[in-house]
Input
Amino acid sequence: MNASWFKRVGIFYVPVSLIGWIILAAALVVAVYRFLDIDSRSHSASDTLINFFFNLLILGALYSLVGFLTSRKE
Amino acid sequence: MDSFEESLEKMTKPSVDKLKHERVLSELIVSSRGRSVLAGWWLSIPLYLIAALVMKSMYVNNSGVIDNLLQIKASSGLYWVYMLVIPLGVMIMNIRILMVQYRESAAPSLPSLLSVYWYNALMILMSIMLLTLNFI
Output
């Protein structure tokens, strides 16, 4: 893929184009939605955080995959 | 004729500031860093799962890590993705990175290779650890 939507900074992929920012915003919206969904079904704060962090890792892995495939090679 | 001899004395050998192989190597290193970051993100999923099971076994009475793992294996269809597909993929990716770097760096000694690519070696070790948990 020749598109460069992201730039790798350390272990994170930072958007460098409009599509990249849209993807990051979508990922954040999904993360907030997942947090509210898990929080509504969990019994304690630790229960929420343990389950949410697992979901956040999966989301981060998928985001980094998109970032890796579309990042600028410098 | 004298001027020709003088100019010959002033002549120096042509020098190349940057070797082509140096550029290839730097591109390979940058590319392998990106792959390592990607592999790290994916490997964090099964590692977090194991860490959560360890925490659970510490705080819940009469519960062990292996028992919890077997429980997840029986109940979750994604178990094999987390505990087999991801570690296997990460292991293959990192072995490939090390092999390419070893070949392109003109076969350096193992300690010098690992001093630069210790992160990849660590991920291979953790992948092997996760894969062995499937056989318990």
Notes: Helices of chain A lie at 18-41, 45-69. The CA atoms of residues 54 and 60 of chain A lie 10 Å apart. Chain A touches chain B through 16 residues (CB under 8 Å).
